[in-house]
User: Fold Choline dehydrogenase from Pseudonocardia thermophila.
Amino acid sequence: MVGAGAAGSALAGRLVERGADVLLLEAGTAERPPEVRDVGSLAATLPDHPWNWAYPVLLRRGTPAVVPRGRGLGGSTAINGAVWTRAVPADADGWGVPGWTYEELLPYFVRAERDLDEQGPRHGADGPVPVRRPAGQLRHATVDRFLAAAERLGYPAEPDKNAGGPPGAGPVPSNSLDGVRVDAATAYLGPRVRVRTGAVVTRVRLQGSRATGVELAGGEIVEAGQVVLAAGAVATPQILLRSGIGPAGPHELPVGQGFSDHPAVYLPMRTDDPPAHPHAPIAQAALHLDTGADPAGDVWVLQFVRPFAAGGDLHLMCALGLPHGRGELTLHPADPAGPPRIEYRYLQEESDRRRMRHAVRTAAELLRAGLGTRTAPDGDVLGVDHRLDGWIAAHLTTAVHMCGTAAIGRVVDAELRVYGIEGLRVADTSVLPTVPRRGTAATAVAIGEKAADLVAGA
Assistant:
């Protein structure tokens, strides 16, 4: 197996529980500095942090950026905001893949989690990932004002973001406990799992149309009866392309083509509230809403209760949950061995620009309804479409939820087997046909859980 991120850790852990012989290769490290464990810190997402792959990307024409991806055990679940929201029924049912409907995925969401707040058959009680909503001293003062403002504006309440119900305003579930970010590796990789860190896989070894192992940087060959790529939505397609599996390779498949992610901007805000508790998760409340074309909710506003820099503003993250735009990942023609070329092509469609304006204006309405004070953009920008488009373009970022670089139905079949290649599977968010409307961490782990059943039953 390649990659000890969200899906890879879950898959390896479950297979070893069943007695499988698994070697898990991870390019990053096993050492966890304090900021990786601390749920209140996003320090590891900074470009120069050793736990961050820091991929250079192009969000849209003229908008370069550096995108964080986790570089160590747990992958991006070790450095992200610890938001634990599932895909919604419209996501999975909309993929149209046998075996991947919401009701068919639900047991894997349940199996993964130990929900400490919600009980019942649609929530897990015994899984390895603890799930909590902000409460008590860990619940920031702005959360109740956020929810009250949403109610004042007529948005429905959604007290359980993982219930699979209609969109609304509610607290955000987190995979953290007592201030510690519980990443997928911490949850799943026990001492019985053989893990080799610092193992950078460059390509899959193929004998004709069969995978026989992988090649590491430096030329070492690791042979295997079956290879599973779970290196994430960037590294997995990169490995496939280097292996000759892709649009221009001898094994022609649309690897890296048509991926989706959530374009986002941060609306700054100020309040007079005391700082968040040191053990409090960063993202604590969210409004998911329908802009008029998607009853499942096509945009969201996510409240961050801690500033990105000491003494700075708080933020509302405004994002498209169901973007229409699609991106492309390719090997860099000047350096195929280096970082890939990633073009998100955000906001090229007017429908995406319109809905992003809607998200920003909704966040501004929440502030006016009693949440706090907006510090940008100015009113003459907020009220004029072309000016707001310019402000959004200048502040554009991504939620880092890339999906679809090796999608089911295009690159792999419903059992995650790469078309035309024996002994090779993909098991990470690369396989999702489109990005789920909400965060991806819980769904990535569910992919690993489901893949364990698929691989064990092969």
In short: The two ends are 15 Å apart (CA to CA). The chain has eleven helices and 25 strands. The domain at 1-132+180-259+327-335+402-458 is CATH 3.50.50.60 (FAD/NAD(P)-binding domain). The first strand starts at residue 23 and ends at 26.
